[in-house]
Specification:
The chain has about 130 residues and is an alpha+beta fold. About 20% of the residues lie in helices and about 35% in strands.
C-alpha cells in the first residue's frame, strides 16, 4: 500500500477530515488509495500555529509512528493566484497548509479512520508499506 507520512497535528487533521488538501513543494502523478502515517517526529508545542491547529481536533491523543487513516489521492493541482484565493475562503483548510504560488495541492477524498492503527517507521515522499 502507498503511504504518506505527515507530522502531527497535520496527520490527525486529515484523519478527522478537517484537512482535505495536503500542500507540497513537489507534484505527483500518483492517484489512488493512500494511507496517512503520523510521523514519529514531534513538533514544538511552543509554535502558536501548531497550538491553533491542535485546537481544531476533537481528539489530540496522537499515534506517533502509526498509519492512522486511508484516503484517495484524487488530484494534484499547481497553485496559482486563483486557486489560492479559492482556498483562502475555506477558513480551516487555509490554516492547515502552506498556500503559495508554485506549490502543489494534493486533493484527498474518501478519508477513513483506521480502527487498528499500524505501527511503522515512516519515510519521505510516497512510500510502500
Amino acid at each position: 500500500m502507498k503511504v504518506l507520512s505527515l507530522l502531527e497535528p497535520w496527520a490527525s487533521l486529515v484523519k478527522e477530515k478537517i484537512k482535505c488538501v495536503e500542500t507540497r513543494s513537489w507534484k505527483t502523478k500518483y492517484r489512488g488509495e493512500l494511507y496517512i502515517h503520523a510521523s514519529k517526529r514531534k513538533v514544538t508545542k511552543k509554535d502558536a500555529r501548531v497550538n491553533n491547529l491542535v485546537d481544531l481536533l476533537e481528539n489530540n491523543e496522537f499515534k506517533y509512528g502509526h498509519i492512522i487513516a486511508k484516503c484517495n489521492l484524487v488530484d494534484c493541482i499547481y497553485m496559482d493566484d486563483e486557486y489560492i484565493n479559492t482556498i483562502q475562503k475555506k477558513k480551516f483548510e487555509s490554516m492547515c497548509g502552506r498556500y503559495t504560488i508554485g506549490r502543489y495541492a494534493w486533493i484527498l477524498d474518501d478519508i477513513e479512520i483506521l480502527e487498528n492503527p499500524i505501527e511503522t517507521k515512516g519515510q519521505l515522499g510516497i512510500w510502500n508499506y
